[in-house]
Design a protein that fits this description.
α2 crosses α3. This protein has one domain: Rossmann fold (3-Layer(aba) Sandwich). Strands 1-2-3 form a 3-stranded parallel β-sheet, with helices on both faces. About 25% of the residues are buried. It is about 50% helix and about 15% strand.
Length: about 100
């Protein structure tokens, strides 16, 4: 997720476009941040998961090379009705999300 608020807006708008499609029931986030993970970014993931749930998204795969993916996954798992899991590999995340 981008750190710039205008980028959050752009990402959220695109997410909403895709989430509205009938065949979409899962989401894969790829987290590529070198710096420490700001708490508001994790909160944004939970907000997105809640919004996605209203569109029928029930699976959320989070890809990261470290603890960041687990932090996002933990935050998203708190949303009732959304199954979240962290991965280190995009292909494995995509396979899980599409199963």
């Amino acid at each position: 997720m981008p750190a710039d608020p205008s980028e959050f807006t752009r990402v959220n708008e695109r997410f909403a476009e895709l989430a509205e499609q009938e065949q979409v029931d899962a989401h894969v986030s790829i987290i590529q941040m070198e710096s420490n993970l700001p708490k508001d970014v994790v909160a944004k993931a939970a907000e997105a998961a809640e919004a996605g749930k209203s569109h029928g998204i029930t699976k959320w795969a989070l890809v990261s090379n470290g603890i960041k993916g687990m932090a996002f996954s933990s935050s998203v798992q708190k949303i009732d009705g959304v199954d979240a899991k962290s991965f280190k590999d995009v292909d494995e995340a995509t396979e899980w999300a599409s199963s």
